[in-house]
Amino acid sequence: MRRENLLTVVAASLFVFFVLLALFGPWLVPYDPLSTSAGAALSPPDAAHWFGTDALGRDILSRVIVATRLDFGIAVAAVAVSFLIGATLGCLAGFHGGWHDRIISRLADTIMAFPLFVLAMGVVAAMGNTVANIVIATALINLPFYIRVARAEVNVRREAGYVEAARLSGASDTRILVMHLFPNILPPMMVQISLNMGWAILNAAGLSFIGLGVRPPAAEWGIMVADGAQLIVSGEWWVAFFPGLVLMLAVFSFNLLGDGLRDLIDPRRRT
Amino acid sequence: MNAQRLAAVRAGAGFVLRRLAAALPNLLGVVVVTFLLTRALPGDPAAYFAGPAASREAIEEVRRALGLDQGIATQFGFYLRDLVQGDLGNSISTGRPVATELIERLPASLELTLIALLLATLIAVPLGVLAATRPGSVVDHLCRVIATVGVSLPTFFTGLLLAYVFYFLLGWAPPPTGRLDPAFSPPQTVTGFYLIDALFALDGELLAAVAGQIALPAITLALFVIAPISRMTRASMLGVLSSDFVRTARAVGLSRTRVLYVYALRNALLPVVTTLGMVFSFLLGSSILVEKVFAWPGVGSYALEALVASDYAPVQGFVLVLAALYVLLNLVIDLAYGVVDPRARFEG
Amino acid sequence: MNAAQSPVTSEGAAAAAMVPSRQHAHRATTDPATPARVPLLDVRDLHVQFQTRTGVARVLDGVSLHVDRGETLGIVGESGSGKSVFFLALLGILEANARITSGSARFGGFDLLGSSEAERSSVRGRELAMVFQNPRAALNPIRRVGQQIEDVLLRHTATPRHALQARAVDALRRVQIADPEARYHAYPFELSGGQCQRVMIAMALACEPALLIADEPTTGLDVTTQAAIMALIARIARENGMATILVTHDLGLAGEHCDRIAVMHAGHLVEMAPAAELFARPRHPYTARLLASTPYGALSIDALTSVPGQLPDLTRTDLPPCRFSERCDRVLPACAGPRVMQDTGEGHHVACHNPC
Ligand SMILES: Nc1ncnc2c1ncn2[C@@H]1O[C@H](COP(=O)(O)OP(=O)(O)O)[C@@H](O)[C@H]1O
Ligand code: SF4
Ligand SMILES: [Mg+2]
Question: Does the CB atom of residue C267 touch ligand 1 within 6 A?
Answer without folding.
Answer: no
